Amino acid sequence: MEKKKPLQADLEQMEELQNITQPFMQMLMEYQCAMEEVATKLKNLNEEFALLYNRNPFETIKTRLKRPTSILEKMKRRGFAVTIDNMRRELTDIAGVRVICSFQEDIYTLADLLLEQDDIRLIQKKDYIKNPKPNGYRSLHLIVEVPVFLSSGKLLRKVEIQFRTIAMDFWASLDHKLRYKKDLQNGEVIAAQLKECADAISGIDEKMQDILIQIEGDDEPKRKRFSNLEEE
Ligand code: 0O2
């Protein structure tokens, strides 16, 4: 007997998706393409930046497609009927890209350069670095729409991009454990400790940025030139 791929086996177990398995897989494929498109654009900027400044603006880039169970859970939690149209319209995080930078300033440089590209449309921007969440969470979130070219023509699909520093990412992964841990007796104490760490991390990120400027000099004119390369 032919062995089923894990995603297909997963889908077939979910009653709500049984009638729309094929369109659902088509939808995931479209988001996968959109996500790869955004990741490629960011990787290209990373290559160019490395050539100009001899350092990489990001250390790591990760992509993830939301799991079918998480898609279903979110649709139900928000009270939407489980249809492909509703998923496309209501969910902005089916495709996710996470970019981990060493320095805060690189986050903004990369985000600006990406948004300057004429095939990228900004749908939403949440700056949790300038306006951290009460628990201390810091990251820059963008939701962008990007074209995907398939045999049927051009489609526009949304991708959520999270930019954060290495230190913010370290913090967020521990905080993530807390978010999903139920029945913790000392949850409030842990949350307060995490908040303290988030503030300390923010101070360290700023100090590291200052030190970099002292070492390399404030090369703002150079950066401006980088973002205006086409006009030069
Ligand atoms: P998971 O498990 O990481 O996927 P949305 O649900 O995205 O439509 P929301 O919550 O207003 O609406 O969006 P926001 O604030 O942009 O957050 C989206 C994602 O950012 C979350 O996805 C997390 O990945 C991350 N995030 C936001 N706040 C926190 C936080 O306080 N701590 C940590 N560790 N991550 C955070 P999910 O789907 O909620 O979670």
Give a structural overview.
This protein is α+β, with helices and mostly antiparallel strands and 232 residues long. The chain has a single domain, classed as 2-Layer Sandwich (Beta Polymerase, domain 2). It has 8 helices and 5 strands; from the N terminus they run H-H-E-H-H-E-H-E-E-E-H-H-H. Strands 1-2-5-4-3 form a 5-stranded mixed sheet. The radius of gyration is 20 Å and the shape is globular. The C terminus is likely disordered. It binds ligand 0O2. The site of ligand 0O2 has 10 residues, from helix 6.
Bound molecule kinds, no repeats: ligand 0O2
N-to-C terminal Cα separation, in Å? 61 Å
Class per helix and strand makeup: alpha+beta
Please tally the helical runs, counting DSSP H or I stretches of 4 or more residues: 8
Q: Note the main sheet.
A: 5 strands, mixed
Biggest sheet, spatial arrangement of strands: 1-2-5-4-3
Cα-atom Rg, whole angstroms? 20 Å
- Count of strand segments: 5
Determine the mean pLDDT. 89
User: What is the CATH topology classification name?
Assistant: Beta Polymerase, domain 2
CATH homologous superfamily caption: Beta Polymerase, domain 2
Number of domains: 1
Low-pLDDT segments, ≥5 res:
228-232
Level-2 CATH architecture:
2-Layer Sandwich
What top-tier CATH class fits best?
A: Alpha Beta
Strand proportion: 15-25%
Order of H and E elements:
HHEHHEHEEEHHH
Helix fraction, binned, reads: 40-55%
- What general form does the structure show? globular
